[in-house]
UniProtKB/TrEMBL annotation:
Binding site for ATP: 9-11, 17-18, 149-151, 188, 197-201
Annotated source species: Streptomyces pactum
Catalysis performed (reactions): tRNA(Trp) + L-tryptophan + ATP = L-tryptophyl-tRNA(Trp) + AMP + diphosphate + H(+)
Protein name: Tryptophan--tRNA ligase
Keyword Cytoplasm among record annotations: yes
Residue positions binding L-tryptophan: 137
Residues of the full protein shown: 12 to 345 of 399
């Protein structure tokens, strides 16, 4: 049986990047074509400085948004990572499989460690071991596909390496997974700073579209997006030299289903492109916002989904994690 696993961490409000890079495909494709599990990975949110009340709130909000976006608990499994103990159980074995060097080579570790150090803070050890927990998330379920945005591809590569290494050393326990990345908008860029990724935990928010932004907020952010100076105001799709315009074209293409290069030909001014992009995003997010408002009024319904999801996830993961424990030589409970 084909199995899919993916997750997102509650470190901030979900963004258009999360939606176009990941969630939208989970809803439109993945939940229909495989046994799919989607997880709010709250333990991962503790790898950087955090506020307990905020993580708690964002975890519930992320779960509610996943359902509002259209994940259907009759088709897939939605749950919270910390509710299923197999993740941390297996994460330790992944730490015993990975090397210090390969963890330190992860781009996200380098970037985030530099950012934390820049703030004068210390770097949590869990930020370094993060990919071991992520590998455990995926491998515990025998997932063969991991639908993610481009920025997570390196972590999935490492997960593959760890699965192969573990299997070679201790016998065939894990399925070797692969990342799937969307064709368009695999890396949505910040609207104000189109050379960096639109990220939910950034401090400067004027270039980030949050899924729950009011329509007028979305419009304002898109209209103020940085377009590229220098060149004449013609509209071309050129990520290298015109990152701002290319980003808007990617977003518009992702919303409307066109190809970014083809869409460019239809515009002769940045203003018109921005206007259409803003409206396309507003319309795409409208049903999600409405459904989120309904579901927020009924937290018991979300709780019931998460409870059933955690039960099913634990039942799926336990035998494989038990097998991994036995394979590495740990004595089974007597
Ligand atoms: P996270 O929470 O940063 O992001 C969730 C998903 O959204 C994608 N994404 C983007 N895609 C396109 N453009 C962007 N600007 C953008 N920003 C985020 C991410 O690629 C991701 O697919 N480590 C993961 C969470 C995780 C996970 C897992 C994912 C933990 N365990 C196991 C898959 C499988 C993360 O930090 O995602």
């Amino acid at each position: 049986l084909h199995r899919i696993f993916s997750g997102l961490k509650p470190t901030g409000h979900l963004t258009l990047g999360n939606y176009l890079g990941a969630v939208r495909r989970w809803v439109a494709e993945d939940q229909h074509r495989a046994d799919a599990l989607f997880c709010v990975v709250d333990l991962h949110a503790l790898t950087v400085e955090h506020d307990p009340a905020r993580v708690r709130r964002l975890t519930r909000q992320a779960a509610t948004l996943l359902l509002a976006a259209g994940l259907d608990p009759r088709l897939c499994t939605v749950f919270v990572q910390s509710h299923v103990h197999e993740h941390t159980r297996l994460s330790y074995l992944m730490e015993c499989t990975a090397s210090d060097g390969e963890m330190r080579r992860m781009i996200q570790y380098k970037e985030k460690a530099a950012r934390e150090a820049g703030r004068g803070g210390s770097v949590r050890l869990s930020l370094l071991t993060y990919p071991a927990l992520m590998a455990a998330d995926i491998l515990a379920y025998g997932a063969d596909e991991v639908p993610v945005g481009d920025d997570q591809a390196q972590h999935v590569e490492l997960t593959r390496d760890l699965a192969l290494r573990f299997n070679q050393r201790y016998g065939q326990v894990f399925t070797v997974p692969r990342a799937t990345v969307p064709r368009v908008a695999s890396r949505v860029m910040d609207l104000r700073d189109p050379t960096s990724k639109m990220g939910k935990s950034h401090a400067e928010t004027s270039g980030i579209i949050y899924l729950l932004d009011e329509p007028d907020t979305v419009r304002r952010k898109v209209m103020r997006a940085t377009t590229d100076s220098g060149a004449a105001g013609d509209v071309v799709h050129d990520r290298e030299n015109r990152p701002g315009v290319a980003n808007l074209l990617d977003i518009l293409a992702a919303c409307t289903g066109g190809a970014p290069g083809d869409l460019a030909a239809g515009y002769s001014s940045y203003g018109a492109l921005k206007k259409d992009t803003a409206e396309a995003v507003v319309e795409m997010l409208r049903p999600l916002r409405e459904r989120h408002a309904e579901l927020s009024a009924d937290p018991a319904q979300v709780d019931a989904v998460l409870r059933a999801g955690a039960e099913r996830a634990a039942a799926l993961a336990r035998p494989r994690v038990d097998a991994a424990y036995a394979a590495v030589g740990l004595m089974p409970p007597v």
